Write a sequence for this structure.
């Protein structure tokens, strides 16, 4: 991977880059519908207002060479599920295949365990999205099952897979090529 990449809190100054990378049908096809398409300037402003108000921070920009080119986040559960959090991530299409999602997911998972104090992190990639599945497998997330035809995306029934990792598994590494975070 060329250039410098990291995750960091979103900034108001990220609006132009956010909208440019998020307003892509190919990106949207792999995300929940609450991620709008087309992705407008107004959508970006609303998202950034929400992200900037978070305490603690749960949504991060994926920064590459100084620009926000995607996002990663942890959505903690509630009530009896408060020990778990859902991991989600996306990267602008021009940056696909460079390892940015894997590194961002690694940093966000470490944050979930070390800062948010979660016990388990899980994700539900579409079954048809091998790139997202590879991100999770590279990090040592284990497959837990499949939700068959559980969602409707663009008028089609879709299946989702469930991948998860617990804090003890994360720190024990190496699992499926995962090295514990430093």
């Amino acid at each position: 991977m060329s250039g410098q990449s990291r995750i960091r809190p979103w900034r108001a100054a990220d609006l132009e880059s956010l909208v440019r990378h998020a307003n892509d049908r190919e990106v949207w096809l792999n995300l929940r519908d609450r991620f709008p398409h087309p992705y407008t300037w107004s959508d970006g402003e609303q998202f950034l207002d929400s992200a900037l108000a978070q305490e603690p921070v749960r949504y991060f920009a994926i920064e590459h060479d100084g620009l926000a080119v995607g996002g990663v986040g942890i959505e903690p559960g509630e009530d009896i599920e408060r020990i778990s959090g859902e991991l989600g991530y996306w990267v602008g299409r021009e940056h696909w295949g460079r390892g940015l999602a894997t590194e961002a997911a690694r940093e966000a998972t470490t944050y979930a365990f070390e800062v948010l104090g979660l016990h388990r992190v899980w994700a539900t990639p579409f079954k048809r999205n091998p790139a997202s599945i590879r991100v999770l497998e590279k990090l040592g997330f284990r497959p837990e099952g499949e939700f068959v035809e559980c969602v409707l995306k663009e008028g089609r029934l879709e299946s989702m897979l469930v991948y998860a990792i617990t804090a003890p598994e994360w720190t024990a590494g190496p699992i499926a090529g995962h090295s514990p975070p430093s």
In short: The radius of gyration is 16 Å. Strands lie at 5-9, 59-64, 67-76, 84-91, 120-123, 142-153, 156-166. The first strand starts at residue 5 and ends at 9.
